Amino acid sequence: MTAVSMRDVAxxxxxxxxxxxNVVNRxxxxxxxxxxxxxxxxxxxGFVRNEAARQLRxxxxxxxxxxxxDLSNPFFAAIATGVEQAAAAAGYSVLLATSSSIPGHEAxxxxxFERHRVDGVLVASAGNMLERLDQLRQRGIPAVLIDSLDxxxxxxxxxxxxxxxxxxxxxxxxxxxxxxxLFVGGxxxxxxxxxxxxxxxxxxxxxxxxxxxxKWTQTLSAELGLSxxxxxxxxxxxxxxxxxxxxxxxxxxxxxxxxVRGGVRVPEDVAIIGYDDIVFAAAAGVPLSSVRQPSRAMGxxxxxxxxxxLRHPAEYRPRxxxxxxxxxxxxxxxxxxxxxxL
Length: 342
Description:
Layout: H1 6-13, H2 17-25, H3 32-45, H4 51-58, E1 63-68, H5 74-89, E2 93-98, H6 105-115, E3 120-124, H7 130-138, E4 143-146, E5 156-160, H8 162-175, E6 180-185, H9 191-205, E7 211-216, H10 222-233, E8 243-246, H11 249-261, E9 271-276, E10 289-292, H12 295-311, E11 320-323, E12 326-329, E13 338-340
Parallel strand pairs: 1-2, 1-3, 3-4, 4-5, 5-11, 6-7, 6-8, 8-9, 9-10
Antiparallel strand pairs: 10-12, 12-13
């Protein structure tokens, strides 16, 4: 079967090839009557735009690359949704990849994006990929970081204030009478985890008679939380914390399950608070208190920032956008449902 060309569409519609091209690529600049005739011809002939040829002609793919750490975590899925919505509204497609927490795989996703000639990349990942992003930028592919910062100020970023979030979580537990806190973080090398601990430590130091233990982990999964919860349940009561601040909700939900399975009451014996306020938090058997990050809004802002860079490269300057988190109190921390912002 012979492929249908723009020339074929133009002949059927009785217009020039350039008019067909404008309808396909810049429809807002074509008169309504002409656009309708061309659209009818396209439908009748089954014309499909040759993306490879268009990329060679324009030098743009109108595609963004997005890499996230773990799509099974609703936090990253919400970021991806926000990116896709903002990109689609601006006429861009999104090529999505996940590293699945596999070391080295994050760099592979950037290689994939470069091979597909994306116009720009968005990175929501725990790994340090700044050196690789520098290489892409030198080749004309800009990047925006999501949920992390570039201390050098070379790349724009969209994140939430994790120090404030950690302070909110610990202060909430302390205000509800908890005095033996445990912070369960992810990998120590991840700046978000260190910032959440810093805020937690600030709240503990400001309170009298409150202690804080810290446990670092390699992952932030529900399975690991279940294991840690079971281990805490096996401890004698006097050696067990009376509150746990988990560095994300997946970990917190697993902790609740492990504690309850071990006969420990949540929140009567151990209060739990998580981080991110994922969609499952409110629906848990013991509704989970959490520090809410506006994940979808973060994705939307990151995509808009990158698209602004692509459309106005001469005026663009790297900028850091920081959202403020909020506390959502539910049953797992022993509080009445409420929301507050610090």
